Amino acid sequence: MVTPRRSSGLTFVCAFVAYATLAVVLTFPLILNLSSTIPHDLGDPLLSTAILWWNAHVMPLTRRWWDGFAFFPAPGMLAFSDHRLGLSLIASPLQWLGAGAVTAHNVTFLATFPLSAIAAHVLSFTLTKRHDAAALCGLAYGFNPFRILHSAHLELLAGFGMPLALAALHRYRDSRRPSWLVAFTLALVLQGLCSSYYLLFFCVFLGIWMLWYAEWSDWRPTVLILAACVCAAVMLSPIMAGYSRIHEQYGFVRAFGEIQAYSGDLSSFVTASPLLSLWGWTSSLNEGERQLFPGFTITFLALSGLALIRSSPSRRFDRLQVISACLLILSIGLTALALGIRMTGPRRIQLGWLTVSLGVFFKPLSVAIAVLIGAVMFDSRMRAAYRRRSAYALYLIAAAALFVCCLGPKPTFLGEQFLYQPPYAWLMRLPLFRDGVRVPARFAMPAVLALSVAGSLAFSRVTGRRSRWVLGLLAAAGIVADGWIGRLPLPAAPEALPLGRADGFAAVAELPVTDVWRDAVAMYHATLHGHPTVNGMSGYDPPHYRALRYALADHDKTALDALTSHGPLLVVVDKRGGGDWSSLVRANPNALPIGENSIWSFFKLQPSPAVTDSCAGERLTIAGISDDRGAVNVARLTDGDPMTGWITPHPQRAGDALILDLGAAARACAITLSLGTGVELYPRELNVATSLNATDWTTRFAGKTGGMIVRAALARPRDARFDIPLPSEPARFVRLRLDESHEIYPWLVTDVLVTGTR
Fold it and tell me: Are 570 and 676 members of one domain?
């Protein structure tokens, strides 16, 4: 690679100013309302606003910082989502200088556009030595349709660490100067502080880069690059350890169905955000995360470079090219076979003594694609590109691979699977991808980066001065048009609660908790009154909050009792929320009305009287368990495993019962029920009775259990267990019976324990 010429810093400054100006125009009139409006909606942007506020006011990585300001009193709230510490490098100084939380968020939001664009500009200039090509790369990456789609997700707009890391790697490859490895390490750390998704996905990109540029005769540069990656991981390890500890505490994992739901469809690549002026009409094809359109202009530019690739001349017979041709023919045949199966259904093929059963079309199609990849690898043009270590070929290959990863573990086309065991299925064999990644579609950002670089490299081959200017202006106009926003929604920032109302309270709970939008507003209110909030929205919901939401929806007046363990709670009821929530709070004997206005009613919820545990005894053996259908497997309900248990085959209905036989009369003083992590399946209203003969029953407990479930989920998030006290009177049988039905959820018991004396 040719050593790049010295470029005036003024050129980069001018480019940054141009990108910043375009960001202001694209999002106008946000610049005129920085302190009073929120870009896109009042959901995730308010979450980011609140987290940036917290980062500015609490020392990062301390216990208090990890516990956060929402989902009170559950610990570890900051690990439920991205921490956004990298973005706080912009937002925190603004707040320290007096800017409000909304202003700091909006300035940071605007800054992500020129920062991403100039980072891509630097990368492309490192490769092309031309600012015109670099400008196209900057525009395509900084203002691409995928970024517009995620204008509500501040952490997903912060992708400037990836191009800076690649630029540093290319500089190191050219010069072998250790300072560029340092720059690479810092860029990786910066990306990790901004977005954990992109750091993880970028590792796949780095793997492709290192495989392409690895010199097997000189392995030292590769080892040093890997060492730099390890250094970055060490620097980020305190954050990684915090996330690991808290996620283990709560048992947070992503279900396969959730991962598949947030994977792209092949049609996603022609589906754009409805915010786009030119391409918004395609949005109806897919929703949300599945709108992965990268932009027509940059895609056309990147693919146009293929026409300029020529094979190296060879004077002798090229056997590998013959192999490539044979593989291509085989791929075509397998594709035809797959299409035949798709059109006519499964079939069996007899090849002499061998019988081949073909049940699904996507397996032969997957083999056809694998064979096609082999044909491309053996092609003389690809071999020549690899010998030259062609940057254009690298970035085009990387774009293709990363876009395939967007499709997740079961790639589909219009909802129907068409690939078997794709790259993402292999990635899911790694713990981080298997348990911690919900949205494979977000591979689109590093993929767009690779596509943008490939497009700029293809454009750099245009040599005519006049044609370069004309084509450059047309390409720039096309890229900007692809990402142009018709009108960015700018809802007004929510009104503040009356100042001082929260003083003297341990936390604030805002009702109703019917949707994430209200929870986001409550988190924003925390930035104004400065107290923790019971409400919360994030990438994960802690079990206790799910239980609280269900209990309040069921009008359980005990639901809030578990939240007063740290002091009195200020309960704020929004009168505009629908439903008689004020009456629900008043029904709690510990609630005291303390005022109201035209919008809100305010209550003071005192801590519940402490309950002393007077049950002393041993674990009593349960000889048998039965329900309405007959005997129940006792072992599954007494093995202590929250993953096994008993569940009704239908939604909860009054009269459903579970009867425990202790084998002989005993003095039971408590019964413990476990829900595992299925807190939404708790018994809405439970009646517990005892008997000596299973005929004459005496009720020992009857009432709502929502408060118990919330308290249990707080104490043991991975295995919510709640105790029901019983009088120490002789009984052989204990009956658990539902006194209230539920339209949706069945009743779950994963473990049962009876304590007492024989």
Answer: no
